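Tokens for chain A. Residues wanted.
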């Protein structure tokens, strides 16, 4: 699947096209519903000043955001088209109609009548599911899959193959083979995919229509006669075949940086990990605006949560805990208390599955993420950002820095209330989990932007609604 890079974040080009098509289908749905409900009345489709055009545009934007927030497009990879259909139904009728109802209450002039809204949603759902079914058939066709050759057949090549399979990305790729000496190949790589280096790599790529060569050698040798044929790879690159390191390949395809292939020089010289004053200012404005909006919307829930915690287990209903922030600076993080008051009488420990220290109310507020709401204060204060790697306790960080390579690099950006790793990986409760999540934290640290922050905020809705990543 072909990707484009928008503000450092890789986005599949096909999904950009699908989003554009669906936007206009959603707009069209409102006009069709209007025509069916009020036959004989004329409306201007092209006049953007027409109130109907503004209402249709609002309808389309809200429905697209709800579609994205429930991971409708990602569901195709893991759940098939049935998952797409169910999530689309929930996104349109539950989230979409609910969000529009709130907006209509706040801005009555943009309101669609109940009958018109219901008809628009039904038409939109039918049209979008039809388009998505055709789209996914086209995307899944072998003709549109990117043909990939992996240069290497050792440990790193096998890890790359496992990553492709584990993340269900094989549906988007056609791996032709792994190049290297067959007798030195990793035993888990299928024998029918092992191949020796062709005499002319350019001719081989042209004859088999290879789109991409991914370099995944256990040890890159740049000297003449080594395992990396620099001249042939340069010829391929200049003939239109994309050549990239396995690190960049996983970064693009999966949105993470593989620790096993990572070296300090790549971090230093790769595109990313850059300072941007404009980005930092826009991010701070974004943090303040979202925090104020969230306070305005969530204060009744915060009040009820405080009362529930107090009734269930007494005072205090809030607790503060020292966490590691930007550049290793310590700060006090605030939460609604979800555990017993003596939960850490023997010192700091990782949270466990079905942790018996969690109170009855605590289990609910952890599942719904209500316990995190006091951290809005940390965001407004500037200790945290709305989006960023989740802050860890110094007791854990001390061990993680010594056991997990590059762990300290996640502290190059402010910690966040929500993060890229929380979308992509379950709740972490061990050193091993922390290492897995670090792959996503490093991707965010390298590529963070306002666009990626907005995307994470929208997609976090699914995490909250489905209770993902909670212990």
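Reply:
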């Amino acid at each position: 699947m072909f990707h484009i890079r928008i503000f450092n974040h890789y986005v599949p080009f096909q999904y950009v096209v699908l989003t554009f098509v669906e936007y206009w289908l959603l707009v069209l749905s409102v006009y069709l519903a209007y025509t069916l409900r009020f036959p004989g009345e004329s409306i201007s489709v092209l006049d953007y000043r027409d109130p109907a055009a503004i209402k249709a545009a609002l309808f389309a934007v809200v429905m697209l955001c709800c579609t994205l927030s429930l991971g409708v497009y990602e569901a195709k990879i893991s759940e098939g088209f049935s998952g797409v259909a169910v999530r689309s139904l929930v996104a349109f009728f539950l989230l979409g109609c609910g969000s529009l109802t709130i907006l209509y209450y706040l801005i009555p002039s943009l309101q669609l009548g109940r009958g018109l809204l219901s008809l628009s949603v039904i038409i939109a759902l039918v049209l979008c599911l039809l388009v998505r079914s055709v789209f996914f058939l086209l995307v899944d066709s072998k003709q549109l899959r990117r043909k990939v050759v992996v240069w290497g057949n050792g440990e790193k090549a096998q890890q790359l193959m496992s990553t492709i399979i584990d993340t269900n990305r094989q549906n988007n790729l056609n791996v032709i083979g792994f190049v290297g000496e067959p007798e030195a190949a990793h035993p888990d790589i299928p024998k029918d995919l092992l191949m020796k280096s062709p005499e002319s790599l350019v001719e081989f790529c042209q004859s088999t229509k290879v789109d991409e060569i991914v370099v995944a050698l256990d040890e890159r040798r740049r000297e003449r006669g080594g395992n990396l044929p620099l001249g042939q790879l340069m010829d391929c690159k200049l003939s239109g075949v994309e050549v990239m390191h396995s690190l960049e390949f996983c970064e693009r395809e999966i949105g993470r940086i593989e620790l096993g292939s990572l070296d300090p020089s790549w971090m230093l010289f790769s595109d990313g990990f850059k300072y941007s004053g404009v980005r930092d200012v826009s991010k701070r404005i974004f943090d303040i605006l979202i925090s104020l909006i969230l306070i305005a919307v969530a204060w009744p829930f915060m009040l009820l949560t405080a009362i529930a915690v107090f009734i269930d287990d007494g005072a205090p209903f809030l607790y503060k805990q020292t966490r590691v922030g930007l550049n290793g600076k310590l700060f006090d993080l605030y939460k609604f208390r979800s555990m017993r008051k003596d939960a850490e009488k023997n010192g700091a420990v990782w949270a466990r599955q079905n942790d018996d220290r969690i109170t009855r109310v605590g289990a609910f507020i952890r599942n719904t993420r209500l316990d995190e709401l006091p951290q809005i204060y940390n965001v407004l204060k500037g200790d945290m950002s709305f989006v960023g790697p989740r802050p860890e306790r110094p007791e854990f960080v001390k061990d993680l820095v010594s056991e997990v390579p590059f762990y300290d690099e996640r502290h190059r950006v402010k910690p966040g209330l929500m993060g890229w790793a929380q979308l992509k990986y379950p709740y972490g409760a061990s050193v091993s989990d922390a290492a897995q999540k670090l792959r996503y934290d490093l991707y965010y640290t390298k590529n963070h932007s306002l666009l990626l922050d907005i995307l994470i905020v929208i997609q976090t809705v699914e995490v909250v609604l489905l209770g993902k990543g909670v212990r």
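Confidence is low (pLDDT under 50) at residues 220-226. The chain is about 55% helix and 10% strand.
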